[in-house]
Amino acid sequence: MTLFSRSHTETGTSVTSTVMAMTTSASVTTESEGAISDGTVTDRLVEANERYAAEFTDPGMDARPVLHVAVVACMDARIDLHKALGLQLGDCHTIRNAGGVVTDDVIRSLTISQRKLGTRSIVLIHHTGCGLEAITEDFRTELEMEVGQRPAWAVEAFRDVDQDVRQSMQRVRTSPFLLHTDDVRGFVFDVRTGLLREIDPA
Ligand SMILES: [Zn+2]
Fold first, then answer.
1. 12 backbone φψ class: left, alpha, beta (φ>0; ψ -120 to 50)
2. Centre of ligand 1 from the C-alpha of residue 98, in Å
3. Are the CB atoms for 66 and 91 separated by under 8 Å?
4. How many angstroms is it from 100 CA to the middle of ligand 1?
5. What is the whole-number distance in angstroms between the Cα of residue 77 and the centre of ligand 1?
6. CA neighbours within 13 Å on the CB side: how many for 18?
7. Distance 170 CA to ligand 1 centre (A)
């Protein structure tokens, strides 16, 4: 059994069913499922990618986001940015980190996004129940005690999520590197309702 036919067992696409009709048997599916459950999580992702690629068609788009927007959001696993904002493939840049805070590296990405890839609008998204509300800057000291080196980066912990969104908006608006800072809006995503709440920048 080739990898090609095995990896397409679960896709059910017309292309693969032609292949499978010639080569497959019931035991193939069992073998494939066994491989997923026995492997590491990365193995699972790679298997899922094989199924994704089997149904993928080249959208033929270039790298410039269709909606000319960059979204900066927390990395929280409960936020499905594309679904939550009705975004399609190719619509936007998504820049994510712990907290969705505007760090120098986020400014780096936004600068490239605007100056090289044509985005104009920026959406900032923090959320309820963020892990950064549960830690403090003492985390840097804890790290230093443990590993003997103080991290150069700030933890960017916060207590008031609304205020942190305002600070993030301010950092974006005052950046000298960005071309467009007239359409910058900030929100808090409620992980229990899925709703965005806009934060007044004032
Ligand atoms: Zn978070």
1. left
2. 6
3. yes
4. 7
5. 9
6. 2
7. 19
Q: Which of 134, 124, 171 is nearest to 155 (CA)?
A: 134
- Is the model's pTM score more than 0.85? no
Question: What is the C-alpha radius of gyration for the chain, rounded to an integer number of angstroms?
Answer: 22
pLDDT in tens, 72-129: 999 999 999 999 999 999 999 999 999 999 999 999 999 999 999 999 999 999 999 9
Read out DSSP for 20-69? HHHH--HHHHHHHHHHHHHS-HHHHHHHHHHHHHHH-------SS-TT-E
Domain boundaries defined on the chain: 3-55, 69-199
Ligand 1 center to 109 CA (angstroms): 19
pLDDT digits (tens, 9 = 90+) for 129-161: 999 999 999 999 999 999 999 999 999 999 999
Residue whose pair of structure tokens reads 């059910």 in the numeric block: 12
Ligand 1 mean position, distance from CA 3 (Å):
39
How far away, in angstroms, is 13 Cα from ligand 1 center? 37
3-state secondary structure of 184: strand
Given CATH 3.40.1050.10, say whether it is the number of domain 69-199.
yes
Nearest to 72 by CA among 159, 158, 154, 169: 169
